[in-house]
Amino acid sequence: MTCRIIAALGVLGFLLWGGVPPARAGRPEMARAYALYSSGHYKVAAEKLIPLAWRGDARAQGLLGFLYEYGKGVPQNYVAAAAWYSCAAEQGEATAQYLLGLLYDKGHGVPRDVVLSQKWLILATARTSTRERDAFTGIRSAVAAKMSAAQLALAQRLALEWAPSAPPPFGTTCWPGASAAGSVGSMVGACSAFPGASGGMPSERCAR
């Protein structure tokens, strides 16, 4: 992927999260968190998002992952970002699937893996709205161009076999692929007993 494309990825992610109207933000707590995020009050938004994320709200998990990836209102932490994106992606949240695919492509917070990157980008492209589909398709194609035919076939098979999961019980591990995720699985497992600390923010060990 060229530097120009990579530089555009964060901008696209910001537009995807920032462009969600209150009507699509879900319950009132989620709408308030989005309003705080959109107005630049990232720390307070994170405090609102964390309990929702632990309760299994996929959009809260995805947006919280975005805050961790870019260090907005919380310390920048790619492992935490990947963990929350994964929780949301497994439930079928298209933007989180897209952003998780980018992390796998770049090796941020997860081992670099173009097959898993392509799997999530395929799913995100299929599930997103028409407005974002062209952008998602372009990134998916850029990753595919770096893959062998065998790798691409495997990614397509994994995407075809995937099915969304239900939100996990409150306070339990939401990452079903912990054994294959390395540090991501360890992070979520370590945090599974900590639905919140320090005023609703994760404990320090959950952010490492």
Automatic annotation (TrEMBL):
<dbReference type="Pfam" id="PF08238">
    <property type="entry name" value="Sel1"/>
</dbReference>
<protein>
    <submittedName>
        <fullName>Tetratricopeptide repeat protein</fullName>
    </submittedName>
</protein>
<dbReference type="InterPro" id="IPR011990">
    <property type="entry name" value="TPR-like_helical_dom_sf"/>
</dbReference>
<dbReference type="InterPro" id="IPR006597">
    <property type="entry name" value="Sel1-like"/>
</dbReference>
<dbReference type="InterPro" id="IPR050767">
    <property type="entry name" value="Sel1_AlgK"/>
</dbReference>
